[in-house]
Amino acid sequence: MKAILMTGGSGTRLWPLSRKSAPKQVRPFLDDKTMLEHTWNRLLSGIAAKDVYVATTKDLAAQVRRVLPRLKTSNLSVEPVRRETAPALALALLKVLKDDPRATVVYANVDNHISDTREFHRMLGVAEHAVRKYPDRLVLLGVRPAYPETGYGYIKMGGQKVTFGKDEVFAVEAFKEKPDLKTAKRYVASWEYLWNPTLVVARAQTLADAYKKHAPKLWKVMEQIAPHVGTPREAAAVKRWFPKAPSITIDYALLEKEKGMLVIPADFGWTDVGHWRTVHDILAGDKDANVVKGKAVVIDGKRNLLFSETGKFIGAVGVEDLILVETEDAILVASRERAQDVKKLVQEIERRKFKNVL
User: Fold this and answer.
1) Is the pLDDT of residue 285 over 80?
2) What distance in Å separates the CA atoms of residue 193 and residue 265, rounded to the nearest whole number?
3) Is residue 260 a contact partner of residue 266, using CB atoms and an 8 Å limit?
4) Which 3 state secondary structure label does DSSP give 157?
5) Dihedrals phi, psi of 119, to nearest 5 degrees
6) pTM across the whole model
7) DSSP code of 84?
8) Homologous superfamily, domain 2-272
9) 52-102 pLDDT per residue, tens
C-alpha cells in the first residue's frame, strides 16, 4: 500500500498557536511532536517510507522537509498556489501513477489523532482486501460515533456487501453534512451512521478514473502535468498548469458524486484535531479534568485548557469550560463550547487588518 498524506490546511480554529506561516500541522499541540510527525510515524508502522507521498503548499514545503527528513524528495508534491483538497490530491496522485498505477493508495489527512495504531493498520488491511475484491470501487473507512458530534460529517451505510472475518463491508448510501445536536443524537442511536474521517482507499488508477468522470476540467489540467512528472520539467509544468485547476474539495469533486462506494465501520480511537476543545478532550483523560500546558494553578475549576507557549504563569479561580491560549504576541480566551468559532474570530481579525497576529 502507498499513502498520500495531506498537509495543506490552515488550521484557523487553533489560532493563535496555528498561524499562516506555521499552521497546525507543523506545530506541537499534544506533546513535543508536530501532528505531521505523529501521522508520519503512525503510517510508517505499517507502510514503507518510500511509499509515503506528501502533498503540501509552496509556503510549507521547507518546513515539511525539515520535519520529515526521511521523506523522499521525489515523493513531495508541492502546490505553487493554494487550492482545495481535490487538486492537491490529484497532483500527488500523478506521482503514484508514475510509480505504479496498480498500487493501492490510502488518502489521509495530517490533522487526525488516532489512539490505536495497530487497529488502524489492521483496518487499512481490511480495506485493501476490499479493494482487491472490488478493484473498481472507492473504499472508505468510517468511524463508529462515540457521542453526538456536531462538528463532523457522517456516512450513512446501506446494505452489507461482504465480510472479511469479523469485519463487515457496506455500501455507502449517503453523506450527511455536519448535523445539529438533535440530528447527531439520532445518528448515534442508529447503527447506520458513521463519522467520516475522509480515509479513502482505492487503486491509484481507479481514483484517477473517478477524477476523469466527475472532475474532467480538473483532470485535464493534471494531464498537462503528468508527462513531466519525474523529469527536470516537472516543477515548471506544475507552476504553469496547476493554478488553472478549479478550487474544490475532494468531497464535492468526487465522493458525493461517485456511485457504488463501500464503507467499513472501524474503531481505532480517531479524533479530528480541528479546534481547542478536541485538544483538551484528547489530553484530559477525565472529562472534568483541567489541561495545563506550561505553568498554572487552577482552584475550583473544571474542563479548562490553559496553554502557555512562552511559559508565562497562569492562575485561574472558579472558571469552567475555559480555553486560554497564550503566545508571545496574542492571547485567546474562549468558551470550550464555542471552540469551533475561533475560525470566525480569525476572519474578523483579518477583516480588521491585524495582519501581524495572523
Assistant:
1) no
2) 9
3) no
4) strand
5) -65, -35
6) 0.90
7) -
8) Spore Coat Polysaccharide Biosynthesis Protein SpsA; Chain A (3.90.550.10)
9) 999 999 989 999 999 999 999 999 999 999 889 999 999 999 999 999 989
